[in-house]
Amino acid sequence: MNAHNKNRVVITGMGIVAPNAVGVPAFEKALQEQTSGIRFDPQLADLNFGCQVSGTPQITEELLAENFTNLQLRGLKATGLVYGVIAGKEAFKDAGLEIAGLDVAMKDMGIIFGTGQSGGEKFREAILLIDQKKVRRLGSTSVIQTMTSGISAWLAGELGCGNLVTSNSSACCTGTEAFLMGYERIAAGKATQMLVGSTSDSGPYIWGGFDAMRILPTKYNETPEKASRPISCDAAGFVPGSGAGAFILESLESALKRGAKIYGEVLGGALNSGGHRGDGSMTAPNGQAVQDCIKLALKDAQIKPQEIDAINGHLTATSKDAFEVKNWSVALNRKGENFPLINTFKSYVGHCLAAAGSIELVGTVLQLKNNVVYGNSNITSLHPDITDVVDSNCIPNQMVNRDLKIVAKASFGFGDVNACVILKEYRD
Amino acid sequence: MQEKEIEQQLFKIVKVYLPQDVESTAIELDSHLMQDLGINSAHLVDIALDVEDAFDIMLDEKDMEEMQTVKDAIQIVKAKTA
Predict the structure, then answer these.
(1) Domain Ketosynthase family 3 (KS3): where (chain A) (predicted)?
(2) Distance CA A126, CA A71 (A)
């Protein structure tokens, strides 16, 4: 226990299914090279979507066979469940943990693995059968694939986790929120290890509502890799994405005891909401609440604003990007050349919605481990409202080497919800 | 349909739902689907749907309740396809 009377918490495992790479080593390479995972999406085109590009992970038959039995694959249509299981199992394996024996679960290891909605495609299949008065034809996996907690329940069974097992949901904050909730549980001494993360389905039934709201880009259907343009003057909306990110969080004591590899330390963070007050609404952020969230995260982590070396923003490629940068600047009281380095991976993975926070946190942890900040792609020129606040040298177009001690990662979501995590390098 | 033919089809259907630690050679006529073969009770629903598709029949509640062993299933299918 430290001065704050909390257990120290470290990251000992990671897993990822992203639009531009599957598996942590491949994702690391894709970030270095700024490989785009945004492709033309024929299904969206067939259905007359305005936006016909997406960031959809490429899952091979081999990968499915490695992670699922033939029986599990029968009728499995919940893509988010598939991504989450693959990422969750990768993180568990990466941490060097052993699956529980057949009789007793690991009582000190829990799961918080969130999603926005599970199995849209499976739910559609069920709805069509029910409407044809064929409810009995649904089979046994309709519930598991469409319940929000399907992903945490599935992973709990595969691994044998016996502590808290749940799935949180807070739109685009889901992944970052799961990470913090898992951290808090270990810090409070209620668990030793937590598998945390989030996942998000692919496809028209998840993304349709956003297309209808006209917040997706429509002019890049022939040039998909250029579609996602965060912080650029010509940002035209977010590219719908999907995938999953996963972590093993663990008490420092437990990690040291078993000689685990340590990626970094979780210093703390904050979760809050603007309550749809002030400039906040169901779809717009309350700037004061965003600033409060960042300040509360610093306070929780017991660090000063000047100690932040880099920020991985939410920065989705909408008109709100400049507002976000301004909020960071006000909250940290840093501007111009004194602003930390800031980036977003959304220009090459798109906005993975419920999975965004966890996918981007994997990238943020890789930055901390490798002492680099990965580049921002597709910036024609920075939005003028951004250069009013921050010097352009703080926004790298290509990977830069930087000795990173402390980094911040935030996600902001529909519902006026905010999440901010503070991570620190771990040295023996 | 020949009894042997029904039996082969049923073995094929049941095989899919065996737990990983149960070999397909374990399936016998008298095998109880749940007790002997360790099939998850939730999957009995799926087996019934596969049987309906394979033999183009409908199973009612009573059939589902009576379908405890592979032999039971053969009898039910035989009666329905006769």
Answers:
(1) 6-425
(2) 19
From the list B16, B20, B49, the residue facing A139 with the nearest CB is: B49
The pLDDT, as a whole number, for residue A292 is: 98
Place of tokens 């220009």: A347
pTM value surpassing 0.90: yes
Q: Which two tokens stand for residue A90?
A: 């990768």
CB contacts of B59 in chain A (<8 Å) are none
pLDDT at position A4 is 59
Contact A340, A334 (CB under 8 A): yes
Whether ipTM > 0.95 holds is no
Q: How far is A77 from chain B (nearest CA, A)?
A: 16
Angle at A147 between CA B38 and CA A116, to 5 degrees: 140
CB contact under 8 A, B42 and A71: no
Pick from A69, A70, A140: CB nearest B42: A140
Would you list the domain boundaries of chain B? 3-81
3-state helix, strand, coil in chain A (%, to 5): 40, 20, 40
CATH number assigned to the domain covering A269-423: 3.40.47.10
Nearest CA in chain B to A75: B46
Per the CB < 8 Å rule, is B46 touching A137?
no
**What's the half-sphere exposure (Cβ side, CA atoms, 13 Å) at A416?**
17
State residue A399 phi and psi, 5-degree precision.
-55, 135
Look over chain A and give the mean of its residue pLDDT values, rounded to a whole number: 97
pLDDT confidence bin for A1, thresholds 50/70/90:
very low
- Rounded CA gap, B68 and A420, in Å? 54
- Does residue A229 contact residue A7 with C-beta atoms inside 8 Å? no
Asked if residue A354 lies in contact with residue A330, where contact means CB atoms within 8 angstroms, the answer is no
Give pLDDT tens digits for A129-172: 999 999 989 999 999 999 999 999 999 999 999 999 999 999 99
Q: Which fold has domain A9-257?
A: Peroxisomal Thiolase; Chain A, domain 1 (3.40.47)
**How do residues A54-87 score in pLDDT, each as one tens digit?**
999 999 999 999 999 999 999 999 999 999 999 9
Give the span between the Cα atoms of A208 and A17, in whole angstroms: 22
In terms of CATH, what superfamily is B3-81?
Answer: ACP-like (1.10.1200.10)
Predicted confidence (pLDDT) at residue B72 exceeds the cutoff of 60: yes
Q: Which of B46, B50, B56, B64 to mutate to test the interface with A (most CBs of A within 10 A)?
A: B46
Cβ atoms within 10 Å, residue A19: 29
The structural domains of chain A, with segments of one domain joined by +, span: 9-257, 269-423
